[in-house]
Structure formats: structure tokens, C-alpha cells
Amino acid sequence: MKFATISTGTGTFAVVRVDDRNVLPISVLARGVDTTEALIETGGAALDAIASGLQAKRWRSEDLLAIDGLRWHAPVRRPGKILCVALNNSALDPFNISVPSFPAYFEKPSSALTGHREPIELLPSYGLTHPEPELAVVIGRKGRFIQPDEALDYVFGYTIINDVTSVTMRKEDHFHVRFPTPDGGEYKMVEEHVSYPARYKGCDTFAPLGPWLTTRDEIPNPNALQVRCWLGDDLIMDDNTANMRSYVPRVLQWMSHHQTLHPGDVIAMGTALSPKRDRPISYGDMNKLDGDVRIEIEGLGTLVNPVRRREAEDPRLHFQR
Amino acid sequence: MKFATISTGTGTFAVVRVDDRNVLPISVLARGVDTTEALIETGGAALDAIASGLQAKRWRSEDLLAIDGLRWHAPVRRPGKILCVALNNSALDPFNISVPSFPAYFEKPSSALTGHREPIELLPSYGLTHPEPELAVVIGRKGRFIQPDEALDYVFGYTIINDVTSVTMRKEDHFHVRFPTPDGGEYKMVEEHVSYPARYKGCDTFAPLGPWLTTRDEIPNPNALQVRCWLGDDLIMDDNTANMRSYVPRVLQWMSHHQTLHPGDVIAMGTALSPKRDRPISYGDMNKLDGDVRIEIEGLGTLVNPVRRREAEDPRLHFQR
User: How far apart are CA A245 and CA B195, in angstroms?
Assistant: First the structure.
């Protein structure tokens, strides 16, 4: 099944896809359950009611809503956390100098989420900003110390995330420092590079998510899905989740060693890249885009967002030293 | 006023401090408001009712709860985001090689929060792990593009955060790579250092918060507060928020240029350091601690957490290449 969160004149609620043209509020088939968050928390019983209701066509035609007129939100609107795997693509391996063997990751705030068809807003100070098309995993039940062979049982479903990234802000938020670091009983001064992603990965609208939250039964193998991304008419990425360095079960094992995963948490699996392996990154700059960003993942649908440029005073002016 | 979130046999709810020994459920004075989240969202009217109810002693003695027996939670339990300013201490300036002039920041997930007196859990794989005592700002109302002269109007109050940090994981989650980077119409290969903090800053229990959420009227100047931290009996940090590189109004301006701040969001202002300015970092290692971590901030109280070491298989074994 495919769920979404949408708004109409009467409110914001979850719907299930009936066919190419129509969706149905899930509360028609599962009384009292009207958000995807409630659906994920409730789990099995509500899902079964919706599946059997769909099969038996247990609705009135006036309950249906046309897909064409919908206003879309992220299918989960306020997840407890959005964890994103960094540099998880084997096409980058030839360019490594020194990298961890396990899936390092960062967060995006829930305030960065936006829906299908909603604009990605860019300010002049954001600089060079590009899309990153990624498979997103939505957690179905609470877990810590998850083992790989049971990991997919913790998944509610899958969706598409655009992990919007500013290269300019990434370079700005880098520190090259000397840290006093313990060395036996003494300290020595050690050079370190650290960088911080809350801004270059986390601005408002930097996490388009959707359109659909597809239940896991429809995606038997999340590690073999074609991923494509267009800027306007240009296909800039064409890749497959088979090329991820760490697959979904290992990523859930790794993250849940450190952090409890909660229902509704979103895990972004790392960006797809260009088919040109000698130059795998061909992001393009969304500032120059006249048209939409479009991401298609096999079995999950197509996430489309226009870009809106907005003026604002450059706050860097206030931080000159 | 000083608020907290606590549990008793009858549930989890918000309380207000009455005196050195007692707290009172806020719903006694503000009917229907029983969490700090609801209090922050409701704003003025509920706060006024609680303030006047406290002054008029509008409660029965059997409504009071003894502070001694409380089980504490983070005063806000599931903030939309926890944004943390990095390296915001002027004592580090002499050690800089190349750093931004503005407040770079990272996130902690709400799943990392824990309460006063609750244990900080350490696993063997976490390695060298230390406390970072910090002033935390709790946002009171929604804001974007906040200007410095109005910034404190967006603050609900202040509390203490222990920004627990693993040096071992910080070093592990560092990438030294060559990125194909646009240069005019061509690409050139550029060496970059990037690092990712979701793990070394975001493990379960890595964000003790509390005990009290103190309303902003009690803290006229958040940029002049003494901050002290003890590991067991050792005073390891003794500093003042006056030594922050960027103060609260500028930090709110900077963050809200990029991200909408929402009621309940938590902003950690960066760690206090040792009074020894030639060696400002003297974190100590919590793995060796036999006793509590104790953080005191002027006007906000004292946040105390024991350390619990827990065994678990080292997941790094599964990621050897």
C-alpha cells in the first residue's frame, strides 16, 4: 500500500492510494486513525483493516479525493529524528584518502521537511546548492541493538528523500584546529579537521520527502532499486541502491547500536550518483534551475519540487572579525 | 519560575518549584496544562495563572510533591530539534588554524535526552567520552529571520545541557576525500575534510537536560553566567558564558536565517572550559569515573548524572574491509 499526508479545505490527514487517480482518507477504513504517525504506532490491526477495506471496496465514491488536486506534506510530518548516511556510495571509493569502514551519519531536523510539489527555498547566502536523491527508510517499531537478519522487521516502509545540500555552507562550516588531546597522563596538541552539517544539510525545505510512504511488503529488496534524478530536463543521476557501501540491514544495526530507533524515524541511505564513474558527482546548481527537481525511485514513485529563490539580508556580514 | 518534568506512580507531568523542598503539578494552577510543551505552546495566560497561583498559595498541601523523591525527565521531552553551537568558546581562539567567524552548529536527536539523576550509559565501543557543560536556551515562539534586538523575546527559558561527546567516535567519523568540485564549466578534484556528529554527539543518554527549565525573567543576561563542572570530586571546568564567541541573540539570528525555530526547540550554546587558558580542555574520561557528573550554572541549578557502563558486542567488527 501507498500512504501520503495531504491537506484539503477540511484539514490535514493521511490517505491511501486507491488507483492512478484517487486516494482515500485512511480513517474511512480504520476508524480513529487519521495520521501516518498513528498508523505506524497502531501497526498491524489498522494496516489489515485498510488492506481488506481496499480489496472489498468498502468506501463510497464521494469519499475519494483526486490525486491531481492534492496539497502534499512529508508523509511523516514530525519524526523524532532523521538520520542520514554520509558518502555511502561505492562510486566514491576511488577518491577516498582516509574514510571509516562503517556508515558515518548526520541528522536533518524535522523542520527541514517539505512535501511533494512544494518549493525548495534558496537564499543568496546558501551558495552552490544541489539535490541528493536517496532511498528513505521509515521505522515501524522501537529498536535498539537490532541484528541484521531481523532488521527489515523494524521497517514500516520506504519513501524518497531529497537530501538537499549546500556545498558553499559545507565548506564554510569546517574547522581546522589544534586540540589539546590526552596522550597518556599528558596532553599534546593535535591538528584536527571537524565540520558541522546542521546548516548545510538542515535549512528549511532541505528535506523534501514523499510523495508516498510505501509499505515494506511492496519492496522485498531495498538494496536493488534504480534511482534517477533530473534537474529540469537534464538527467543528472542514474544509479542503483545496489551500489550503496552499506545496505539497509547493516545501517540499522549500526545506528541502533548507538541510538534507539523509534516509530516514524526516517533514515536516508545516502545519495545516488552520476553513471559516469570517473566523475560520479554531477550535481548541478539548483540556483540556476528553471524547472523542477525530479527524483524517481523504482517502486516508490516520483518526488517533484520546484525551486524558489528568495531574497534576505546576508547574515555573514554581522560576523566579520 | 522553575519548571520540571517528572514521573510518579500516577504518570509523567510538569511541575513548578514552590520552595527548596517541594514542587507542585502545574495543572493545579493552570487547568488542562500538564506538560511543559503545552505550557510553552499556551504561553502567557497559563504562565500568569501559575505565577499568581504560586503567590496566593492557591493549592492544598496534599498537592505538593517532595523534590527528594522525584524521578526526573528532560524538562522538554521531545523537542522538534536540539541545535548545538560548536567550538563557541574564546579560550580556543589561540589554537585555531582556520575556522568560521559565525556559529557553526550540529544537532542532537531528542532520543539522546535524559533527565537529572538518570545514568549516562557508556558502551566499550564509545571510547574516550567526556561531559560538556553548556547553557541551553528553550525557544518560546516560532521565529524565522529573528533580529538580535528582539531575539530574547523568542526565548521561553533556560536550562542546563550536558553535551556528552565521544572523542573516539569523533575521530572515527572523519572523512578525508577528493571531491570532484565544479570550477567554471569543468570539474577539478579537491581534497576535503568532512566529519559527521550524529553518533559521537547523539547516542542514547548523550543529552542530559535539566533539572529545571527556568523562565527567562529570572535570567536577565544569559551571557554572564558562571558554569562549573565536576567529575566526581574534581572540578574540571570553571568558566563563564561571557567567554562565548557568539552570544544568544546572535546565535538566534544566525540559526533562524536558515531554519524556523519552533516552541520547545533547544539550543545548546557550546561548552564551558577549564580555567587554565594554556590548556583549556581538561575533559577527563567518564569511563574512569566513579561518582557523578555534576554541572552547575548560576541561577539555573545543578544537573547531576551518574555513569553506567554497559557491555555490548562491538559492531565495528562487522565493518572491517
Answer: 17
C-alpha cell at A197: 552539517
CB within 8 Å: A175 and B98: yes
Cβ-Cβ contacts under 8 Å, A180 against chain B? 95, 279-282
Contact B180 A104 (CB under 8 A): no
Show residues of chain A in contact with B107, CB under 8 Å. 106-109, 198, 202
pLDDT digits (tens, 9 = 90+) for B214-224: 999 999 999 99
B140/chain A closest Cα distance in angstroms: 16
Chain A residue numbers touching B106 (CB-CB < 8 A) = 106-107, 196-198
Q: Is any Cβ of chain B less than 8 angstroms from the Cβ of A220?
A: no
> What is the reported pLDDT for A321?
62
CB-based contact (8 Å) between A87 and chain B?
A: yes
What are the angstrom distances between the C-alpha of A22 and each of A16, A25, A115, B99?
9, 10, 18, 53
| Residue A178 contacts B, CB cutoff 8 Å | yes
CA–CA distance, B41 with B32 (Å, rounded to integer): 13
pLDDT tens-digit map of A112-128 = 999 999 999 999 999 99
Sign of the CA dihedral with A187 first, then A189, A190, and A196 last: positive
Greater pLDDT, A321 or A22:
A22
Per-residue pLDDT tens digits for B71-97: 999 999 999 999 999 999 999 999 999
String of b and e for A20-46 (b: at least 16 CB within 10 Å)?
Answer: eebbbbbbbbbeebbbbbbbbbeeeeb
DSSP string over A110-165: GGGEE-TTPPEEE-GGG-SEE--EEEEEEE-S-BSS--GGGGGGGEEEEEEEE--E
Position B239 pLDDT exceeds 90: yes
Residue located via cell numbers 559565525: B102
- CA–CA gap between residue A241 and residue A297 (Å, rounded): 9
Give me the numbers of helices (H) and strands (E) for chain A, helices first please: 4, 22
What are the residues facing B228 on neighbouring strands?
A: B238, B296
Q: Which residues contact A209 (CB under 8 A, 6 or more apart)?
A: A74, A75, A76, A113, A114, A115, A136, A159, A160, A161, A162, A266, A303
The DSSP line for B126-177 is G-SEE--EEEEEEE-S-BSS--GGGGGGGEEEEEEEE--EEHHHHHHTEEEE
